[in-house]
Amino acid sequence: MSEHQIVHHKLLRVFVWELPVRVYHWLNAASITALVVTGFFISNPPALQVSDEAVFRFWFGKIRFIHFVAAYLFLFNFIIRIYWGFVGNKYASWKNFVPTNRRFFQEMWQVIKMDILQLKGKEHIAVGHNALAGFIYFLTFIAFVVQVITGFGLYAATSEWWFPQLFAWVPGVFGGDAPLRHFHHAAMWFFILFAVVHVYLVFYHDYVEGRGEISSMGGGWKFIEEDAVEELKTHHK
């Protein structure tokens, strides 16, 4: 097809992402950004010389405070998302993330062939997350849990509140605070890499498919070809 040919499709407006999912997404993005930025300062604080009294220059304490607040936001936001995986619509369901049947793996392989290996074949249509994206999110959720455990394990030594104290055992498992701190910092790079790939793929699919991938996380709606929706209904009967 030449660039001057126009293909007409009848698009259906499909409500995919419910408000709690969209709020979770943006709160998660904000908290991870705050955690990464403040985490860099905490891991390698710059040496600053000022003439004022230290009590007036408590900037590093503020950075740590922001890090801890973002950590709590990240944790409780994640807990709400897990809950919504059981009570939300079918696009938010945990079944989209955990491989539970043979079809899930077949769809993952189809996406890998088309999107990654760039092989010829039939396009895999997914209104919500495709199987590969869902599985990657599942692995990301596991990384979330690991980062929460290691982070609050470090925080337990400087907090008297009962919740961080639940993780006081973690440093002993890693051989002390220093190795745990290195592991926690190294794991941060997974989130940075994930964010880069995630943003790239969102823009890529929005450009290639034209289904409102970017705007859907603002309003919740996607635009899917009518014949594709009918095919999905038939496929999942």
TrEMBL record:
GO terms for cellular component: plasma membrane. Keywords: Cell membrane, Electron transport, Heme, Iron, Membrane, Metal-binding, Transmembrane, Transmembrane helix, Transport. Residues 16-220 form the Cytochrome b561 bacterial/Ni-hydrogenase domain. It comes from the Bacteria. One of its GO terms (biological process) is respiratory electron transport chain. It is found in: Cell membrane. One of its GO terms (molecular function) is electron transfer activity. The chain crosses the membrane at residues 21-43, 63-84, 132-157, 186-204. SUPFAM superfamilies: Transmembrane di-heme cytochromes. The keyword Zinc does not apply. Pfam families: Ni_hydr_CYTB. It is a multi-pass membrane protein. Belongs to the HupC/HyaC/HydC family. This is Ni/Fe-hydrogenase, b-type cytochrome subunit. The lineage of its organism: Bacteria, Pseudomonadati, Bacteroidota, Saprospiria, Saprospirales.
